[in-house]
Every structure is written in C-alpha cells, then in structure tokens.
Amino acid sequence: MLDNAESDDNTHSDKGRRIRSKxxxxxxxxxxxxxxxxxxxxxxxxSYKLYKAYNETRDGFNExxxxxxxxxxxxxxxxxxxxxxxxxxxxxxxxxxxxINQNNEIIRQxxxxxxxxxxxxRKNKDLTEDNIQLQNxxxxxxxxxxxxxxxxxxxxxxxxxxxDRGEYAGKFLGTAYxxxxxxxxxxxxxxxxxEPIIPGISIAIDNKYWPFGTxxxxxxxxxxxxxxxxxxxxxxxxxxxxxxxxxxxxxxGSRYWDVYLVKMGNGKVNNSTFPL
Length: 276
Prior knowledge:
Blueprint: H1 2-142, E1 167-177, H2 181-184, E2 202-204, E3 215-218, E4 222-228, E5 238-242, H3 246-252, E6 255-263
Parallel strand pairs: 1-5, 2-4
Antiparallel strand pairs: 1-6, 2-5, 3-4, 3-6
C-alpha cells in the first residue's frame, strides 16, 4: 500500500512538475514574444528614423546639387553678361574714338571756315573801300560844272567797314539832270523839298510813292536822297540823278539801275537824313 501511495505521490509530483514546466514554458514564450515585439518595434522605429534621415539627406543633397547647378548657371550668365558688357564697352570706345575724330574734323573745318570768313571779310572791306572811293569820285564828278545859285557841297562818304544797302526795291529807270535854267526854268538850285541841291546825292522822284528824305542805294551811283520832283519823273520806279555837268549827265544817259531802299523818309530833309 505504501508503495502504491508513494507511486501515486510520485505520479502527482511528476504531473505537478510537468504542469509547472508547461506554465513556466508558456510564460517564457510570452516574454520572448514580448521582447521580440519590442525589438521589432524598435527596429521599425529605427528604420523609420533612418528612412526619414535618408530622405532628408537625399533632399538636402538634391537641393545642394540644384544650388550648385544654379550657381554654375549664374556664373555662366554673369560670364556672358560680362562678355557682353565688355563688347559693348569696346563698341562704345570705337564710337567715342569716331566721335572724337569727327569733332576734330569739324574743328578743323570750322577753323578753315573762320580763315575763309576772315579772308572774305578782308576782301569785303577792300571792296567797301573801293565802292566808297568810287562813290566819292562819282559825286566829285557830279559837282563839276556850272554851279547854281544855291547848292550844298557834299564832302564825301567815310567808310564804316560795310555797306548798308537795305532792301532791294527793284530796277528803276534812271536819268540825270542839271539844275540849269534850260532844264529847270531857273538856276536857283533849290529842290522841291525846300533844301539846296546836293550834286551826286539829290534825286528827283515821284513823291506819291517816295516821301522826301527817303534814302536809296543805287548800284553804280551810291547813296542818294529823295529831295526833288520833276514833271517827267512819274511812277514808283523812276528817278532823276542831280549833277552839275551836262556832259556828265548825257554820259550817264537813260538806263535801268538796281535800287535798294535804305530808309523811308518822313517828308522832310535835314542833317539827320544823311547818316552816310
């Protein structure tokens, strides 16, 4: 009986050990699974972190590559702009040199023109002197002959460096007369303006068109002043030139002269009429 009892105790003891062994084995599996789960979770977290870090690194690398490319493009663009600016600068320098050369040429031409103008001014002055001397000679010749009772001796024209011809009035039919009794009915020598005749200066005009005191420049005869009228002197473009010598008057004859209006008169003749 004891043996059976011991046998039963042993049997129960083995069963207990097996049950405890199974319980212990199940608990171990649980812990192992838990540890494995934790490890797997940790691995997943680390993998995610590594993946995220990889993506960030890759994005940073791509951005760095883009920046490098952009920098290279910018450098290339700047290099092209620099080359373009350098070419523009060279073109501007060429144009500047051309302008400088043109300016120098213009200055040279201006100097040549100035020299030519100075030469023309000198020649014009010489011609003016010759013209004045010619006028004085004509007026001196006009004062030679039989003198009327009243006349004003003209002392000549002084050169002022230029001729004031005024505005061209056209071609006038001109004749010459003497203040003799044969031509004027008396030898008083007083013009219709009331002033004494001036040989080589006084002219008779139609005072419907030209008031007394009007100053003309007649090419070939010089300055003349409207001081007289005549029965044969009719029309706007007609004058009679006063001289004292009949032969001189005949030599001048009847012909057309270029006439310029220097100053319109006011109907009177006085000393201010002769700014010649």
